[in-house]
Every structure is written in C-alpha cells, then in structure tokens.
Amino acid sequence: MRNRIAALGVVLALSTVIVGGTAVALGLTTPEDSAPQAAASGAMTDAATSAYPTLEDHCYIEGMIPHHEQALELSGLVLEATGVRERTRALAEFIVADQTAEIDTMRAWQTAWRGAIRAEGAAVGHQGHGGAPAAAGAIPTGCGDHAHSEMKGMATAEQLAALAAADGAAADRMFLELMIAHHEGALEMAESAVREGSNAFVRNSGKHVLVEQEREIAAMTALLAEAP
Hints:
mainly alpha; Ferritin; 8 helices
C-alpha cells in the first residue's frame, strides 16, 4: 500500500500546475449565505436564515451521485484485474476513497435539507422553477431523467463488460481511457454547478470536482502515454 501511495504521489505531482488556471477562469468564490454545508462530520442546516437550494442545485447532486458511483464501479473493475500497473491501481484506489467520501457528503446534504423543510410549508426563501414553492416536507424534485441525461462521459454497459473481461495492459489502458472520458464529463457538470449553483455546498462540491479531477485527468493522460 505504501508503494502505491508513493506512486500515486509521483503521478499526481506531475499534474498540479494545471489546476490553477481553471480555478481563476471560473472565479471560484464561495457565497456565505447558503446552507447546509455538508462536511465529513455531518451536514449542518440553518434553513431559517438561508435561501432554500434551487432545483438546479438539487439536480446537480442527484446527477453527480450516480456519476460518482460509476467511477467506483470502473475503479473496482480495474482493481479486480490482474497484471495492471501499480500506479494505475494506486490511482483507482484514490478515486474510490475520494469519490466515496463525496457521495457520503452529498447524501448527507440531501438528508439535511429534507429535515430543514417546515412541516407546514416550504423552507424560508425557496422558490422553484417558475416561482413555485417547494411542497411541504419535500425537497425540489422533477429532475427525473433530466438529471441522468445531464451525466456526461458515462461508460456504456458494453464498455463496462469489456473492462470486466480484460486483464493486464488491456485492462490498464481501457480503464484509463474510460475514466478520462468519465472525468471530462464530470468537469462539464461541475462547471455548470459553479457558474449556476446558488448553494454554497453545491458550488464547493463543483470546485472540488474541478480541481481534483483536472489533476487526475493529467495523471491518467501521463499514465496512458506510458502504457505498453
């Protein structure tokens, strides 16, 4: 494990410089009046003083959770394969740890806002699409297939099956190619969240995706260039 962590550190160090330009270009600032801030220790909510998240905020989270879940699936498949390079395995293990934590905080955020809505009506300050308030005891819904259609870079069932059947250099290369496309799709989603999101947690989540996954794309691109 120590060898894998060291290998990952070397790979990611090669890509750190790329991140700054994206952050500056998007003007990554954090609004101070949106809640809850879902953190590793739990989600804190103060709906009495904060505007309720918009439908766009909720649809980003609803789409990003299954998007992250497929990243876990891709990583799990390459970790099960034999003959994969240690640096590729280290990167897959890191993705599992990072995105599992993100899924947990996104779900905590959803749970916190469900509890924040007053039983007799919508949370203070919330207006949904068209100015319609949220229903009592509910979070904004209506993403439906829209949230899933907005998930970019998702691998197909056939691609997942091919990765599951592969080993060695083939599995290594296939994983990197699929995960680069998957990360590029997440960047599109995250850019939209940062530009259009109204809630601090949603925007911060988007910023983390932009910074971390840009770095991982650079690392995977380097690994792919070195692949046998």
